Every structure is written in C-alpha cells, then in structure tokens.
Predict the 3D structure of the following.
Amino acid sequence: MTKDLWSDNYASRANGLSASEVRALFAVVSRPEVVSLAGGMPFVPALPKERMIESFNTLMADRSNLALQYSGGQGDPILREHIREIMGLEGIKSNVDDIVITTGSQHGLDLVSSLFLDPGDVVLAEGPSYVGALGVFRARQAHIEHVYTDLEGISPEALNSTIERVQAAGKKIKFLYLVPNFANPSGVTLSANRRAKVLEICRKHHILVLEDNVYGLLYFEDRAPDALRSLDEDGVIYLGSFSKILVPGFRVGYVLAPPSIREKLVLANESAVLCPSAFSQMMISEYLSNNDWKAQIEVFRGEYKQRRNAAQAAMKEFLPDLTTTNPGGGFYLWVDLPKEINSKTMLPRAVENLVAYTPGTAFYGNGTGQEYLRISYSYPTPENIRVGVQRLAKTINEELSTVKG
Amino acid sequence: MTKDLWSDNYASRANGLSASEVRALFAVVSRPEVVSLAGGMPFVPALPKERMIESFNTLMADRSNLALQYSGGQGDPILREHIREIMGLEGIKSNVDDIVITTGSQHGLDLVSSLFLDPGDVVLAEGPSYVGALGVFRARQAHIEHVYTDLEGISPEALNSTIERVQAAGKKIKFLYLVPNFANPSGVTLSANRRAKVLEICRKHHILVLEDNVYGLLYFEDRAPDALRSLDEDGVIYLGSFSKILVPGFRVGYVLAPPSIREKLVLANESAVLCPSAFSQMMISEYLSNNDWKAQIEVFRGEYKQRRNAAQAAMKEFLPDLTTTNPGGGFYLWVDLPKEINSKTMLPRAVENLVAYTPGTAFYGNGTGQEYLRISYSYPTPENIRVGVQRLAKTINEELSTVKG
C-alpha cells in the first residue's frame, strides 16, 4: 500500500466508504469454474438484441443529434411518459413533472440521501436490507437502524417501537428505506395489510418513506400488492429502474417524488452529472415505443421463475434441513444456516469448492447476519444453480463436521 | 409553489443547491428564433454517425451481453488503455490502474469533492471559474476563494498570497481547482512558465491540485503546454472527458488520481452509481479502436476555429470598443463590458433582441462578475454567431443609452 500524501485532507465522510463484501467477491466469481450465486446480475442473454438494434437504427436515423448531445437534468419527457405508464402497472398515479431520471436507481438513492442525510441522522431499514443502500447511508455518515422483518415483510409493531425508541433518544429519523417487493436480499414481499399500517405509522411520526421497487414487475405467480406510493403521494419517494426489467448496461433509473423534493432532486442531479445520458434514455424510450415490452418482462418472469424453482428444488435435494424464504418474484433466496456456521468465514471454503454466495453480514449495518446467506439465482442456468447448491451443501456439511469436531 | 411537508427534514447541504444562471436560460434559448451564445454545447452534427453505427453493430455482434450488463466500478480496462493514450498527447505518463471512469467529468468533480470537502472548507479557483464546478463546491458547503487570473491564467503571486491569507485565517484549503487550457469561461490558457510556479507553490503549502482539462485537445493553432499532471504525479488529480472531443450524450469522463485517492474514488463511484454505463464505455472504446479518432478531433478543431474566428470578427465589426480574451482553443470568449453595464440585468433585454449569453456573475462564487459576459461560439453556425453578436451589440448600445440617459 502506497503512503497517502493526502491522508490529512479527506472529508470526514470519506472514512464511511468501504469495499462491500459483495464487491470483494467480484474477482473470484468471474473465474468460469466457479458457480456464482453471489451477484444479482440480470439474465441479459434473454434480451431481444435484434429489437434493440432496430431501436438504435431508428434513433440514429431520426434523432442522432439529440441522442448524442447534452440534455436536460430532469430527463427525457417521452421516457418519463413511459415511466408513468410502467408505474401505473403497480397502482401509481403520477405526473410526469414529478419524475426525475437518474443514472440507475443507485444514483437515485445517492441523490435522495444527499438531500436528506446529515452525519448522525438515523435511517430505518428492513433487517436484512440492500447492501448498496446501506453503503450509501454509511457514506453519508448516517446511523442505520434495522427493524424486525419476517416473511410478511417489515413488522409494523417493531417499526412503531423502533421509531419511539430512536426519537426518545433524541435522534432524528430522516426516512424509512424499504424494498417492499421480492426484496433484496430476503425475497420477501410486504403484505397489503402491512403496507397500510406502515404508512399510517410513518405519517403519525412524520417519517418519510423511501420505496425502492426495482423487482416489483418480476413476479412469478401473483403480482405484488399495489406500491406504497399508490397509497400516499406526499409521504413516499419512489425509486424504480430499467436495470432489472430491461437492461442494466444503460444505467437508467427513476425517482418519483413530491414536487418540493423533486425540485431539489433535479438540482442535485444536475450538480452531480449535468444530465443523465440522452443516448441511454432515448434508446430505452425508442424500444418501449415500438416493442411489446410487457411481453419482454413476461419472458424475464419465465426465466427467473425457472431459476427460482431450480434453486428451491436443489435446496430441498441437498440441504433439506435448512429453512429458506419462498420468493414470489425477483432474484434472491435467503437461507437460514445452522447456528454453528458463520457465513462470512465460511465463504473462502465455499470458493475452494467452486461456489460463491453473499454472506448475510453484507446486508446488516451493524455486523450481524452471520447466520444467513443470500443465494442469487438470477443469472446461472438452472443446471448450474443445482451444481452450485450441491457445492454449497458440501461446504456447509464440511463446515459442520469441522465445527462439531 | 406547493407547501413542502418535509422542509424540516432536509440535510443542511440541501440549502446549497440552487438553479444556476445558465440553467435558467435553457427554456428561453431553445426557441429557434433566439441565437444562443449561452450554453457550451459541442457541435455534434460533425460526428461521424456512420462510423458510430458501425461501432454499435460490431459491439452488438461481438459483446452485446457484456455491453448490456452491469460492469466494474472503476470502468472498462480497454477504454482505460485508450484514455492512457489520449492523456499521453498532453505529456501525461499514467498507469491504467490509476484511471477511474465516471459519468461525465462532472461526476468526477462531484466524486472528488465528496472525498475532500467538509462544510466550511476552502476551495481555491480561478476568477472566473466553471459554473458547474462552483455549483458542486457550493453543494458541499465549501467556501470558494477566487484567485486573480489574467490572460496568462491564474497568477502565481496572487495564488501564494491567497493561500497565506486563508491559512492565516485558520481555514483549511482542500484543493486548487483549475481549467488550465482554453478555460471555461475565459478562454485563457495557463502559460508553461506559470504551470511550474503554480505547482511549486501548491507543493510548498501542501495544496492538492484538481486539473480539469476537457478542452485541451481542441486547440486552434499551438497545442497547450503539457498538463500539470505531467509535471507532478502525486499532487494533481486530473479530470478528462469524452464530451468535448467525441460525444457528450454518452456521459463518459475520467479521473486520473494518485493511487491512495484513486482507491477511494472507485468506492465513491460504486456507492454513487454501482458502475458507469458498460454500453457507453464500450461504444466509445469500439469507436476508438477502429477509427482515426485523432482525425476526428482535427475535424472538431476546424469547426471550432472557424466559429472562434466568426465570433472575433463579429466583435470587431459590431463592438470594436470592447476587450475580449483571445482563445487559442475551446468554446468560449470572455467579454469585458463598459462599467455602466450589468450583464445579469441586461440579459432579459438581450433575449427580447433574440440573443442569449451567460452573465459573468455565473462564474464567480461571490456575486461579482456583472461587468463580464461569456460568449459560447461552439454550437451556432458562423453566420448565426455574426447575427448573435450584432444583436448583442444592439442590446449593449441600447443599454448604454438608457443608463447614460
């Protein structure tokens, strides 16, 4: 490690940056012999490449000088119309003026956090919660308070008591961060009954809700209950993305926010990147205008459902004693391990056995979670998922026999 | 304006966000009858569209599943090799491991600022300085201290005395921000002699230099002196971009930083956007690999030189008494107005006369600059530049007769 000449110059928040446990795996899992159940990569081979080439050709023929130029900080108006329609599928009524397009929904998270989080502020989150969101909150020096979450999603009772406890301690809660549908990492969906209760509790305590719904349209049987945003226009900031329902490589996400917040978001977006990529936005817009994108989402649903089934079948075959969640959509299965096992320290041995996963500790802001692991079934073939789970079972059984001596 | 339910919840930095004066013009200048000398838009009609279509087709045929997928947070290794070569044209020797690809150089600015700026920290900048950088520094609640700048660039003597004054006042200077080549907004280039002096002064006082060089390769006669980074590897963070030398609509910029800073930059980039767009990066990389990109930059040089000549000729024809800078490259001409005139309050009357410019006040962090304005000649045709300057002359003359009664 080089000596850092500028170590006395960093902002205090620079210390909040740390390599995520997921990231540390990237080098390892790219080896072809390793079955990666770690990263949450969409299955892009299922994309209709020919249709995207057509979209590109039309775009370059009709509007190349706009697509290649700088554009507005709020995002392309035609794409925002499409987004309005997409959000409508989950019960959301919105105004295109209140939509801001971002460089992936991750940047939406970063921008919203930049508007609200001062060092020491509290963010409430499910336990477990999306590792990339925890990283953003930590980088803003916020304190993350996890709220008890079960198979129906976050617990309203636990939410209420956590809010009262944190507020009684004199701390400022800036928002509740939720992935209500087919959550990353748990795969759990917040029940309709609890959605109403969560919103009621947040309204009562004047807590803003940050609803991150990038998996909602990837359901396998029943669609998820209507979005929280459909029930509360003023108290919810909604984050969406094209990364999971269409294509991650363009980095296009979106935020729907109450008007006063949206105005600040546009300014924050301009300050951060001047404008999101005109080309990326217009490619997606062109594709959506001229293709049956709902049928394409249906294709993805089929791909992911097949993979979830493979993951669950393999778990039943090779690890029948372990409990997992039962995801009705999305990319992830959350596995409860025997209490003797630490998923973080077990990982190198799993990689020796040519399988990778994400340790549960990545999804908690407080160092807990070692008794869980996340399986991501979104990318490998069903056959490779089975092989991966078999290797995982071997690793767990070896680990158990070592621990039990 | 809607009542803001969440006004008590914002982070303190949210107050630092304000609509730039440049931005407020966007709606106005998009009217086709207005000649806009305001925005700094590259002349994208000069791009080789057929070559870009070829690059796209090759990319989709060979590597579509990589181009459409998530990618690494530091950016595409092949593109980083190209960037290394591009920076070499300005004397920079670099290691690809020290290059980080960003969502335009604006995001590079934002990420570097996020690593270094705490509220109350001081940033030194040329006077005038790039409006988008000032916005980023303000959003981080930094104090901007302008340093006297003349036709040879920033003054070393003024730099030294400013540093001593600010440090004596007990304030922490985090970096010096410079656009050394064909600066935005002044068009001025820092002389070779002063480059060495500026670096020496910064080293003496342990001040980091942030060198923003997005116009350097767009010279009209002589190329600019070697980059500051070529003279100091440890004390300079270098920002570059494809927006001016190739295409802004993909949003691809880059940062070259000392290793310890670069490590933190990659983490900050991942936290903010997970990864820059794989598709955008690979499109540029594909284009650079298979085309004579230096000849394309030469095409741009010709386009912009022709426009600079038109702007200077029109100034001589219609406003012969005014002094301007004499840009040897880039997009901008900086105009010194009669002292009776306030460029900010004059702007609405200019727009009535169907011409737009950017008031000098946009480029100062302290409210000064009303006696200057910026002409951007990069986008309009030479004929329209002449018409625009003629209208500007009419506006200034009307303004003078009003003021003088």
